[in-house]
Each structure stands twice: as C-alpha cells, then as structure tokens.
Amino acid sequence: MRTKVNLETWIRTEHFNFFKVFSEPFWGLQAEVNMGKAKLTAKQKGYSLFSYYLHCALRAAGDIENFGYRIESGEVYHYAEIGASATVAREDGLFGFTHMPFHANYSEFNKGVQAEMQRVRTTKGPLLQVPCPENVMHVSTIPWVKFTGLSHARHFPLEDSVPKMTFGKLYEENGQWKMPVSMHVHHALMDGLHVGQFFERFQYYLDQ
C-alpha cells in the first residue's frame, strides 16, 4: 500500500528540501554481519542461503519506516512493504534484473525468488523484461570479493530514491562466518540513524 506524505507536516521536510537538490544525494557505508547462525539455519532447514539472508534483510528494512519512503514526481510516498529487485547471473557471464515481492512467510517468498532466478537464467533479451515498482530495494551480490567499500553506477538525471544493497563474499575468520554488506540510501529520506537501525535489525533476524 502506498501513502502520500504531507510535506507540510512531515517531521523530515526541512531535511528533505535540503538534500533533494544535491547533485549526488545518495550516501552509503559498508559493514559486516555475522552469518554463523543464518548459515546453520539454512543448512538445517534446506533453505537457499541467499534467499534466506535476503528475506532477513527485507524484514529488517520493513521494520524501519524511512526505508519505505520514495520520491516520485517530486512528492514523497511511503510503502508499507519492501521487496527486492536483484541482479541474477546468467550462464553467458552477464546478468538480468528481477522483481522479488516480499512475503512475510519465508517459504512463499522463496518460491517467488526461485521462480524469478530461473526466469532470468533461462531467458535472453532486454535487461528490464518485467516492470519493477518503487517499493523495492536494488540488490546485488558480489560473492567473489570481501569488499571494504563500494560505489554504484548512477544516471543522475533520473529521479531515483530506491535504497541499494550489495552483499559480498561469505568468509570465515577466527571461527566466525562473516559477510560484508553495503547500503546506499537517499539522504533526503534517511540518515545514519536509520541505516544503523537497519543493520541492527538485519543481524537480529540473521541470529534467529
């Protein structure tokens, strides 16, 4: 469900007006999450580790109001539910985009994820084969690299306020499984507080 934000009464209007005119209003950071419990849970239950930690991340984003804000035609709207538009690798070394709607139930969510991954892997054609709504996070995975920083290709004339999340290489260090995660967000809509809250909630769900 999409709700229009009243900019006359919104607590964030001053910050929105300040940052929305920046030539680069996105900012980001990279942090590590502990993957030990999530890795064990996925193995014990036969889950896809990727779809499991993606589900945890989307649950975390859904817990934080600011992750649901989007700028559309200069107005701000709030979405109650956040899915994913994730890149999926193809056998030819390229990739395609997906649309993975969120479901609170992991099994239902995973069905959609696996269907989308199969669709992209077995088809060729335009990158954007299916329309993608605004209530998503842009998601990429770079499983070969334990990165310590990351930037994104951006088309600045395009109105874009969708958060961008990148997962890195799962690795073991001193007996603990870890993974770098990068998050880039629009500063007119959220600050460091909200990204910090996201990582806290993400780790909470990974540890369940």
Q: Outline of this structure?
A:
With 208 residues, this protein is of the alpha+beta class. It has helices at 13-19, 36-45, 49-63, 106-121, 192-206; strands at residues 2-4, 26-34, 69-72, 75-79, 83-89, 95-97, 136-141, 164-167, 171-173, 176-186.
List keywords for this structure.
208 residues, Chloramphenicol Acetyltransferase, 7-stranded mixed beta sheet, alpha+beta, globular, 3-stranded antiparallel beta sheet, 5 helices
Mind sketching the topology for me?
Blueprint lengths: L1 E3 L8 H7 L6 E9 L1 H10 L3 H15 L5 E4 L2 E5 L3 E7 L5 E3 L8 H16 L14 E6 L22 E4 L3 E3 L2 E11 L5 H15 L2
Parallel strand pairs: 5-7, 7-8
Antiparallel strand pairs: 1-4, 2-10, 3-4, 5-6, 8-10, 9-10
Can you offer a commentary on this structure?
- The protein is α+β, with helices and mostly antiparallel strands and 208 residues long.
- The protein is 30% helix and 26% strand.
- It has five helices and ten strands.
- The strands form two sheets. Strands 2, 5, 6, 7, 8, 9 and 10 form a seven-stranded mixed beta sheet that branches. Strands 1-4-3 form a three-stranded antiparallel beta sheet, with no helix packed on it.
- A hairpin with a 2-residue loop joins strand 9 and strand 10.
- Helix 3 packs across helix 5.
- 29% of the residues are buried.
